TrEMBL record:
This is PARP12-like CCCH zinc finger tandem domain-containing protein. It comes from Poecilia reticulata (Guppy). InterPro entries: ARTD-AVP, Zfn-CCCH_PARP12. Keywords: Metal-binding, Phosphoprotein, Repeat, Zinc, Zinc-finger. GO terms for cellular component: nucleus. PANTHER family: POLY [ADP-RIBOSE] POLYMERASE, ZINC FINGER CCCH TYPE DOMAIN CONTAINING 1-LIKE. Residues 59-104 form the PARP12-like CCCH zinc finger tandem domain.
Amino acid sequence: MEAEILKFICANQGAVDAEELMYNLFPGESTTEVISNQSKFALCSSNGQQRVVARTSLRLCRKKDCPGTCEGLHLCKNFLFSGSCHFLQRRGCSFPHVLNSDYNQRLLIEHELEGLSRAELCTLLLQSDNSMLPSVSPPTGVLCWLPVLFS
């Protein structure tokens, strides 16, 4: 049941209204017990409405020549994002471009993520691992810019 809920949430951009989840996926059943699994789901409130957000502890491996002892997916981040990698055509890419390798499949099964598409897995990993997001730096010459944005 968790795998179906996770797939539903990831297919809907990583978060759904709790009521919508209950109504569409398992009407009449208690999905609140399943979504209380804090390693896979987070409940948050937005404008008084509860949303369920999918998450995972699985990460991408960042080592270019990892021997396979890291417990992270061996996959190119560009390939994960778009299904292709522009580095392959230029100078080559150091990271694997095979999501369904034996190593990656073992990890996906361990984390119960084997049923997710590449796009759904991308959504899940992006919202679970802040290091996959691009860094944002303040505009040049602005020392204290956050209060300006939120005042």
